[in-house]
User: What shape does this take?
Amino acid sequence: MIPKNKFIAIAAIFIFVFSILFIGIQLNSQKEDIPANTEEDSQLSTSSTDNEHYNPTSVEKIFIKGSDTILPVSQAETDAYMKMNPEHEVIVIGGGSSLGIASFIEGEVEIAMASRKIRESEIEAASVKDIEPIETVIAWDGISVIVNKGNPVESLSLQQLRQIYTGEITNWKELGGNDENIKVLVRDTSSGTYGFFKENVLLDQEYSQSAITEPNTEAVVDDVATNTAAIGYIGLAYMDESVKMLGLGTEEGTFYPEADLIRQGTYPLSRPLQYYTDGRPEGVVKEYIDFVLSDTGQEIVANVGYLPVR
Assistant: This one.
């Protein structure tokens, strides 16, 4: 007969072993009930998580940079275009035609705004970068020569205007005006208007060393409006009642920047305003330019103060 103490010890060992075996069976059963976490299951889980945050709307951006003359047109066109196409974002920056073309050549923008024609040197620089500048005229402009409303002078010949800007004529009394030294205002060298005026009025002579450089067209208007001796040149859209527009005399007569005269090229400082793109516009860039050239877009051009292309 097994002593009572030994019996109790054997029973305790038996219960302990049985408990261990039972726990092991239960754990193994639970493990079999859990699905294996395969690589395929892991990918499916990630995709499901991504889909919860996925936004199907893709915003396409267009960067436009350049002429301050064209800037108000592009800003107005962009506002209207983005209301119709909220999935697209158009960013417009001024700074001057030269800066816009330089940024375009570097591939930083899709569209360069220019109030002058692209130069041969710029075309060559673009070619090195495998960029083909294609021009699209979006509007017409007539550069306006402005003076203070208190200035009695009503018109200047192109020769007189050239003499003012080269420094040969320095006092308004030489032109039938007040006895005041002429304050000559010019745009900065990156401005397409600066280049166009130099080429077509100064015949590529240098500006007077006493000429004062203004950072933008608004500054030219403000200075002329507050200084009776000042003279400046601006794009047609910037003309307002705070200043006086001068007529420009040629051998054919004296002309003002009127719509028909600009379109005919009779006004001596008529010029196109253009966009430059790399090759023929495609995709969203084409869509934007087509809008600018549409009836709606050209109505915006007219509302801003320039002339539609048709």
User: Anything to note?
Assistant: The chain has two domains: 60-141+272-304, 144-268. The CA atoms of residues 182 and 229 lie 5 Å apart. DSSP finds eleven helices and 13 strands in the chain. The longest strand covers residues 133-142.
